[in-house]
What we know:
The chain has nine helices and five strands; from the N terminus they run ααααββααβαβαβα. Strand 3, helix 7 and strand 4 form a beta-alpha-beta unit. 68% of the residues lie in helices and 10% in strands.
Amino acid sequence: xxxxxxxxxxxxxxxxxxxxxxxxxxxxxxxxxxxxxxxxxxxxxxxxxxxxxxxxxxxxxxxxxxxxxxxxxxxxxxxxxxxxxxxxxxxxxxxxxxxxxxxxxxxxxxxxxxxxxxxxxxxxxxxxxxxxxxxxxxxxxxxxxxxxxxxxxxxxxxxxxxxxxxxxxxxxxxxxxxxxxxxxxxxxxxxxxxxxxxxxxxxxxxxxxxxxxxxxxxxxxxxxxxxxxxxxxxxxxxxxxxxxxxxxxxxxxxxxxxxxxxxxxxxxxxxxxxxxxxxxxxxxxxxxxxxxxxxxxxxxxxxxxxxxxxxxxxxxxxxxxxxxxxxxxxxxxxx
Length: 335
């Protein structure tokens, strides 16, 4: 379990004993479960992305090596073919010489017996060499045919994998464009839509969503979330992770229902997740997560930077089912 998860668990347990009676322990159990689900979902999505990129690189390297082997075998085959043709030509010449010797008289045969024996030995040797060259050529052709077949299979798998990756990238780009268009009226310093690591990040400032220290979304923020939910209803293959972030300023003593920034970030993320599901997104697609002050986007050394860190990030991740099928198929066929 990651350190952040352990801290959240400890904070939640401590909070259970210190919160007012109106905050039920079940709520904090749910928060801990959702935090664990968030970490697992993010880790799995990142693992899948890395596995896809690693498999593509491995397939490309193997394809390059197979093409190099194919060229080497083709060169060897050409050299073997040339040697075979030279040997056949010499074989023909030796056969002609042999036939001419047979036509000579007995005296000429006797005088040429040494030449005959030499030619016969050369002929036998050349016949043996010819047989070896033909066998080698046949083996080379068989190896080339097999390599070409394997090469075609590898090329087809790589093309399939590249197509799946391209479709995934297109889906992410289309999703980013759809979300940007839907939230066009809110974008600026309070809302940003960007792509990172194959995902779409919708970053909303605290100013757009919450009053200071509050866990209830303001009407303007509710309108932005409503429009985002409308877009995501048309994207059933997109998982949604809501991450709450804070600056490093501790929660004021006596704040009702809150012990520290963990509580604040988790409750804000949960509230936004709830509003998205109310807006029509299936609850099983949404995960709420609180990250407190531990993943800042700027140093907490000025009011402006602290304002940047007080944000909510809605992370949209397309499902990778088709890509995983291809990877599983490649892994199975490679065994």
